[in-house]
Amino acid sequence: MHHLPTVTFMQLYRIPQATGIDSLTVAETHLPQPERGQALVHMQAASLNYRDLMIVEGRGARGAPPADLVPLSDGAGVVVAVGPDVTRVKVGDRVAGCFMQTWIGGPLSADDGASALGGAIDGVLAEYRLFDQNGLVLLPEHLSYEQGATLPCAGVTAWNALYGGQPLSPGDTVLVLGTGGVSVFALQFAATAGFRVIATSSSDEKLAVMHRLGATHGVNYRQHPEWQNQVLALTNGEGVARVVEVGGTGTLTRSIQATRLGGEIGMIGALTQGGDINPTPAMRKGLILRGIYVGSRQMFEAMNRAISAHRIEPVIDRVFKFEEAADAYRHLKSQAHLGKVVIRISE
Ligand SMILES: NC(=O)c1ccc[n+]([C@@H]2O[C@H](COP(=O)([O-])OP(=O)(O)OC[C@H]3O[C@@H](n4cnc5c(N)ncnc54)[C@H](OP(=O)(O)O)[C@@H]3O)[C@@H](O)[C@H]2O)c1
Predict the structure, then answer these.
(1) Helix, strand, or coil (residue 261)
(2) What is the per-residue pLDDT across 283-329, written as a single tens digit (0 to 9) for each?
(3) Does pTM top 0.85 for this prediction?
(4) Is the distance from the beta carbon of residue 296 to the nearest atom of ligand 1 less than 6 Å?
(5) Sheet arrangement for strand 217-220
(6) Residue nearest to atom 36 of ligand 1 (CA)
(7) Which residue among 47, 50, 56, 156 is best mutated to probe the pocket of ligand 1, counting the most ligand atoms within 8 A of its Cβ?
């Protein structure tokens, strides 16, 4: 279902000044027209990442975001118009925007970092958005727009953590921390590929869901503050091959203890603060601590092939309406969710 826009105005959200969730403001603007190489996308859904909370609170990677920023990196929609010389997409295609609009493949460049949606440049919480054709990927056919909108940041980051570093082998064990967007995708991708997965969570109810999604074992990190010992016990005292490390300084020491000799830790998140990191144990174990900043379009496309082949369904915790965007942010902040929090943009 798509239609060429007959409207001349559209609604979007802006952050005039990033002073918290209440600073989210609905605004109206002219519908843009695609120029050479551009596609106009009628956005249908967007999803939230922890980063979006940091940005609206003025504590993003770049400090305060640009004034009047349009928030959110992750969105999906339908192409409704294309400019001259557009060959990668056509009207009617179901697409998602890449987190970094210019990172196609190879190593990350500084310019790529400056093309991150909803941070360095305007994001996707808008009824329509212009994209350069190179910043779009086709959605897997079996996914809804809501599901497709979960992929660009959390999905690609999880994919990169599993497949962007040293290869994993059949029988390897992957450790995912918590049950947020990145960790649930990592669980799904790893379980689908046949790896053993150990999940941690603050909640036994959430761990039960992780089991249903394919986790081999769960550890409640509230009940077991020294959860790394549980992980070691579950891996014959050896530790896991890969950690999807979304916790940051507050969890990294335990993640290092929970990793086997020569294993790899995907350094992703900063959900926790504090904690002195001693690098010596990582050195003695020959670990790889690999920094991850989402991923390239090529990684996104590789991930989509796996999602299509295995008909993986992203886990959506709750869908909010466009006018309830602030409630969606509050829900993410509460950490009551498991998987992804989504905003439906178009009815
Ligand atoms: N480097 C990158 O490119 C990149 C990309 C995406 C995300 N990130 C970062 O990765 C982190 C996760 O992002 P997200 O969007 O997936 O977040 P999210 O959906 O908001 O996940 C929040 C969940 O993390 C878990 N958690 C919180 N504190 C924890 C702790 N001390 N130990 C273990 N788990 C804990 C909780 O799960 P339970 O309720 O189950 O305990 C919580 O519900 C954030 O720091 C984010 O900025 C980085």
Answers:
(1) strand
(2) 999 999 999 999 999 999 999 999 999 999 999 999 999 999 999 99
(3) yes
(4) no
(5) 217-220, 196-201, 173-177, 240-245, 259-267, 288-291
(6) 178
(7) 50
